[in-house]
Amino acid sequence: MGVVVSVCAFHLTTAIDIPLEVEQLPTITEASPSSLIAFPFDESFPMTCEAKGNPEPEFRWTKNGEEFDPYQDPRLIKEDNSGTFVIPNTGNLTEYQGTYRCYANNKLGTAITEEIEFVVPHVPKFPKEKIDPIKVEEGQPVILECNPPKGIPPLQIYWMTIDLQHIEQDERVSMGLNGDLFFSNALEKDSRRDYCCFAAFPRIRTIVQKNAMSVVVKSTNSILERKPSLLMPSGVKSETQLVNGDELLLECIAEGIPTPKIEWVRMGHRLPDRATIENHGKLLSIDQVNEDDSGKYMCKAKNIHGEAKHSFDVSVEGQWKNSQLSTIGSDVRIKCSATGTPQPTIQWRVNGKPLKASNRKVLDDTIVLHNAKSIDSAVYQCEASNRHGTLLANANIMIMSKFMGLRWFYSLLLKIASTFLLKNKDDTTGSVEGPRFTVHQNGSLEIHNVEKEDMGQYTCYTKNTEGKSAITALLDVKGMKLNTRRHVFNTQLGPYFIIEYEESQWEPGNWNELQRVPGNHGSAVLKLYGHVDYRFRVSGVNAVGRGRPSEPTERYKTPPAAPDKNPENIKIEGHLPHEMDINWEPLSPIEHNGPGLEYKVSYKRQDVEEDWHEHVVKRHSFVVKGTPTFVPYEIRIQARNYQGWGPEPKVVTGYSGEDFPSAAPDDVEVEVMNNSLVKVSWTRVHKDKLHGHLGGYRINWWRLRSLLDSKKTHGNKHTLTFPGDRNHAMLPGLTPFSEYSLIVMTFNGRGNGPGSHAVNFKTPEGVPEENPVFRVTDVQKHIVALTWAPPLVANGVLTGYRLEYQLINDTEEVGVLQSMDISSPDTTSCVLRNLEAVSRYKFYLRSCTRVGCGPQVSEESTTTPVARKSHRPGCCRAGKGNWKISEAVNTSKTFHIIEGLEPGTAYTCPREKEGSSQCQRVVLLFSSGLASIHGGISTQGWFIGLMCAVALLTLIVLIACFVNRNKGGKYAVKEKEDLHPDLESQGMHDDTFCEYSDNDEKPLKGSQHSLSGQIKAEDSGDSLVDYGDEDAQFNEDGSFIGEYAGRKEKRVSMEVKGTTNQSKA
C-alpha cells in the first residue's frame, strides 16, 4: 500500500459560507496535490496556494520544515497577491526536490495546506534476476508474477511475447489488478519460453520489460476435474474502505476444471446501475462511490462440481465540513475521524502550531472548547498519519463576540388575500395583534388575508448578550398586488435546530449535541441510550449564529436495553511467537444501555475448517495462547449486558505473534558507484521465512583498512535501515581508498533475522583532504619560505603537491597565477625567490593523488623592503623520530646550544646555507660524556683558537719536561695521561650542542641552489623548515613537518662524518 487507507473527517456544524465583507479566518481555496511530480517533458511546475479571508491573507512557505522564501530565488516565477509560485523546468530540478507547506494567515488565524512533496522521478527498472522455468502438469493452475517496479502512476501492464505479440486472454487466462497473469488451468498449448511482462509509465514515456519467463506444461492422459477455488483474493472475507468519489474495484480470479464462471451479488440489494463487470467477469467496478454503495458484496466462482465464495465488506465515508460558527459561552466540539491500517495517529494544531491546553480538552479524536470565547476563534488542523502517509484537514472555528445584526435575504411579491409570512427572531409581537396576526414559536410573524390597511412599516427587534438590533421592512399594497419595496428579512431561527442532552450519572452538567432538525420542523424523534437519566434543551442556528438555548426539560430516564453497538478499533498484535493479543476500544459508559456489560471474544484460524473459540471477559483485552507463529485469524467482539446481546459483530482479520526471520538475503552484490557510494543488491527473503510482517532490510558495514595499510582491523559497525519490500539500497558516506565488509539482514516486528554472508569490497581512490598546516616561515626582500604538513587523510596514494602564488597588492588587479607541481610527497617546504620587494603575495597549496588534487589552503605574506637576517627556531630529530623545536636561532652568532638531548642517540639537525634554497643536515652522536663535534666544527674560529692554545700549552709542558728530564726528574704514567688527553676519545663522551653556521659557504652534496618551475623528488627532502616561535613537538604523520627518507638520511650522515674526519686528519 502506498497511501493512507483512511478518511480524515471533521464532524462540525453544517459548513457556513460567510460573505467576505465579514471578518473571517483564512480558508485554503486551492492547493497543489500532496505529491507533485516533475515530469521531464513539462515546461513548469506550479506550487499552488490560494486562500480567502478578511483581512486578506498573507502567505509564507516552508521546505523540509525550514522557512523558504520564493522571492529570494530569481529563477522562480511569482504571482502577485497570491501564495503560488512556479518552478521552471530548466533542467536542474533536483535542488527543488523536497517537502513544502504553505501557510495563509491574517490577524485572526492561520490555515495550512497538506505537505506537498515535489518529486523528481527516476527511471523505473525491473531487477536483474534469473527466472527458473515453471513446470506444471496439464490442468494445474499457473501464476506468472510480474512485480512491476515502483514508478509514477498511472501504471499500465501488458503481457506479450518476445516479438511483441499480446498473450490472448479469456475466462481461462487473464491478468489481475496486480499485473500477474493467471491460468485457471494450464493446457499444453500454454507451453512457451517467452512470456514477458511490460510495465508502461506513460507520464514519463517509459516502458520497461521483465526477463522472459518459460512455462512447460506436461501433458497427461488423465485430467481430473475439480471444483473451483480462488486464486485471488485469499481467504473468505476482506474489507475495503473508500471515500466519497473513489472508484471501487473488486476482483475474483478462480481456478478449476471446467474453467469457473464468476458471478457478483450485493447482499440484500441489487448491484448499483453504475456497476460494470469487466475482465471476463472477474472484475466489479463502481465509479464515483457514495455512502449508499456501502455494504457487503460477494463473488461466486462456479462450475459443475461446486462453487467458491469471497465476501467484501465495503464502507464509504463522507467528506468533511470545515466551518463552524458559534457564540460566546457555548461548548464547541471538533471531531476528527480517521481510519486505516495501521490505525492512524491524530495530531491537533491551531493556526498551524501544536495545540496547547487551556479551555481546550482533547479526548482522543475530539477537541472540546468549554465556554468558548472569542480568543478561541482559529483555524484548527487535524493531521492523521500512519506509515503509509499523512492527511490534513482545516476547520475554521469562529466564536462571535460582536453582535452582527440582521440581514436582508430575499424579496417578496404577494397578491391580496394571500398569506404574508414575516420571519422574526424576537418572540414579542409588540403592536402586531389580532386574529390575522400569528407569531409562531420559532419567531415567525404570519399575516393572513393581507389587506390594504396592513400597509405600513414593520420592525423586528432582536437582542442577545452582546447587544440589541432592529430592522425595518415597508409593506406597500397597490391595487390587486402587494409589493415590498424593500427586501423582506428572514430571521427565523433556522436553517436548523440543535437538540442537546445532559445526563446525571457520568458527565452531569455537560451538554452534548444529540440531533439536528430542519428549521421548518417543530418536533423530532430522538434515538436515546438505555438506562440514562436525560434532560434536553433546544437552540436555533441561522447564518448569523446560534441563539440562546431553551430552558431544560424535566428529567426523563430511559429503561435498560441490550447494547446497540459493539466495540470498535479492534487491534490484533503478537508480542511473542505463540501468543496473540486482542485489544479493542471499550464502550463508553453511556453506551452500556444497562448494567452488567461484558464482551464475548470469538476467534478462529482463517482458511481452516474449525469452530469458533469463545471467551467472555469484562476487560477490553484478551490474550490467546498456544497459537502457531504468524498465521491469520478471524476475530469478532460482541457486547452484552443483563438485557441481552448487542448486534451481530463484524469480523476482523489479524495475525498471531511474530518470530524472528529464519533466513538471510541471498546473492548479495556490491556495485561501486563512486569513491564514497556503493549500491547493494540482494535477493528478497521468501515470505514463508519472514515469520511476521516484513519491516524491511538492514545493512551492517564496517571498514577493514585503508588500502595504504596492509593490516586489517575490524572498525566500528555502522547500520542503515531500509523499510519496506525492496532488493537494493544505496550506501553513502564511505571513505575512499578503503576496504569494507558488509552483511544484509531482514527484520520484522520481532527483530532482525540472520545476516547474509559477508561481502568485501574496495572503494576507489579519491582526492586528499586539505593540508592541516600551511605557513610562511621566513620573509626577505625577494624571498619567501613556506612549509606545510601532509594531509591527515590522503584518500589514496599521495603523489605530491600543487603550489600556486600570485601578486595581490591593494589594487583591483591581481598578478598572474604562478603554478608549480611538486612531485614528491615527502616535500613539506619550499623557498620562492625572485619575488618583488615590498609586495603582498597570496600562496595556495593543494595535495594530490593519482585521481586529482584536493581542496586548497591559502596564506598571505608581504616581502620586506631590505634584506635582513632571520631568527628561526633550531630543530633536531632523533633517528627517524619526531622533529623537536628549540628556541629561536640568533643568526648573528656562529653557534647555537640545544639542550635536553638523550645520551647515546644520533640526532639530525638541518641548517640552511646562505644563498641556498634548502637545508643541509648534520648528524650528531651523543654519549654519556661530552659529545664530539662533527660536521665542519674544525673550521670554526673558536675551535682553531682553542686548538692553538692547547698546542702552545703542550709545547710549554714538553719544554718543561725536557728540562726536568735533563735534570733527571721522572713523571708517573698517570700524570702523562692527564697532560696528554685523547681528544677523539674525549670528544665521544663530552656533552656538547647542535649548531649550524650561516658562514659555511660550501654546501653539502645534493643541496638545492634555487627553485624553478618543478621540484624533483630527489631534491625535495632538505628544504628549509620553519618550526614556529615556541617549543613544540610535531609528529611525522602529517601534523607538522615531514620526515626525511631513511635512504637519504644515511647518505647525508655519511657525507657529514667523512668531512669531519678529514678535518681532523
Structure at a glance:
By secondary structure, the protein is mainly β. Among the domains are: about 25-120, Sandwich (Immunoglobulin-like), CATH 2.60.40.10; about 325-400, Immunoglobulins (Immunoglobulin-like, Sandwich), CATH 2.60.40; about 420-475, Immunoglobulin-like; about 495-560, Immunoglobulins (Immunoglobulin-like), CATH 2.60.40; about 570-655, Immunoglobulin-like; about 665-765, Immunoglobulin-like (Sandwich); about 775-865, Immunoglobulin-like, CATH 2.60.40.10. The strands form 21 sheets. Strands 3, 6, 7, 10, 11 and 12 form a 6-stranded mixed sheet that branches.
Provide the CATH top-level class of the domain at 666-763. Mainly Beta
Helix content, binned percent: under 10%
Q: What does the main sheet amount to?
A: 6 strands, mixed
Q: What name does CATH use for the topology of the domain at 666-763?
A: Immunoglobulin-like
Rg over alpha carbons: 47 Å
Shape assignment: extended
Number of helices: 4
- Beta fraction: 35-45%
CATH architecture identity of the domain at 666-763: Sandwich
The low-confidence parts are 1-15, 320-325, 402-429, 479-494, 871-880, 912-936, 969-1065
What average pLDDT do the residues reach? 77
Structural classification: mainly beta
User: Could you give the count of β-strands?
Assistant: 77
* Cα-to-Cα separation, first versus last residue: 95 Å
> Could you state the CATH homologous superfamily of the domain at 666-763?
Immunoglobulins
